[in-house]
Amino acid sequence: MNKLKLMVAFAMALLVLVPSSLFASSHREAPITALDRTADITDWYAFVSYDHPHRVTMILNVDPFLEPSNGPNYFPFDPNVLYEMRVDNNQDGVEDVIFQFRFTTEIRQPTLFTGLVGGIAGIPPITALDGSGSEGLSLRQNYTVTMVKDGKSTCLNKVKTLFAVPSNVGPRTMPDYQSLFNQGIYELGSGVRVFAGTVDDPFFIDLGAAFDSLNFRMGVGGVLPAAEDADDTHNYAPDAVAGFNVNSIVLEVPIAMLTVDGKIHPAGDKQAVIGTYATTSRHRVTVRRSPNPEKDFGPYRQVQRMGNSLINELIIGTGSKDRFSMDEPENDAQFADFFLNPVLAGVFSSIGIPVAPNPRTDLLILGQYIAPICPGCGPGDAGPVADLLRLNTGIAPTPVGSQKRLGLLAGDLAGYPNGRRPIDDAVDISSRAVAGILVDPVKFGTPIGDGVQFNPEGYGATFPYVVPANNGRDGHHIGPGQAGCSGQPGGICPVQ
Asked: What is the pTM of this model?
């Protein structure tokens, strides 16, 4: 019992570090990204690799709600967007290591009516990303990976061309899509691996119910019964993201490439803790000159950034969303009032869920390097308030099969908010933090949830941890009244 109390106390304290990411990943959350979908970051993940505990995997997902059947161009990465993964390793809220990804598009057969075709009209099925079997891959992308550290840029893929995995058109065009997916995994040497391509969106949520003013379907006002809350393997409401794809960049690097001194540290050392976030940027000026190529010039300007999920979408006011997207994390103190007086907590209260009183200083200080996620940090190491997904690289990964969707709340110390894995239920965990579970876990610990407990398409147990894209010909979505909720009678998702 004492051990259990200590575990719960640790989890509650660690939640202080998590900005209130709430009901969905960041899909179209700000005016600027609602109009610029290819630069829209949907999710950001960072965790110690399951099968390589001396490495960290970072996943940057962009371009939300990709309908698998939506040809003829499908959904390539934007060659005019600079995609970046950023790491702060000295507790000052400013990035010290940057990984940059740039994509190039080639149209190999400009007379074809679609970017991807095969198994018809003398064009063989697409079975390879390059060489024989890639003839039907007309719209093809390659990319580069560059590390920027100590002011020096290093290309990490000098000896090979990296190809992005295209959308999954269907079984005639791509009869062995799993093989194409596997071909997109590249070893770059020195313990670095990379993948880029279209994949199943790993996020899970009853999005329609959440945005219908928290009109949840379980008949309990968004409060999960104990049996449902303890269940990590069934869904009780439809996953609105199921069946949709997303573009994903996955990078695995040794921990020693990320820490301030190039060494691996135990969990109790402040140098084991890193802060991570992702950004998308465009050149300051873009001129579209069809039929001539687009012309871009001037320095890059940030379009969006993401550390913890859904800060911008459901905490930051609409009038400040673009500013939040384009500003730097170390300047986040300017948004303090949104955390001290969270509107969403008032919404919870209006439907009868007890919430902690304002001002919510517990949410304001969550964006700093403080114990227990950074046990070695002292008062001078807290750094500025900054939206960074913090990860203690000294905490060993939880083995696949033993991971808990509620992360730290369920005693899984390698789970959210100690970094974030695809399996982590950011919806349920973070909404409880907004209600005030870290202030008083008894008084404000209502088991808020949407009833969607996992991604029905599953997760990858090894790198790249995402799973292949849904099939354009045969894919489907899950909605109310349809099959897809294994926790309900007959597997049918509830309408009410």
From this structure: 0.92
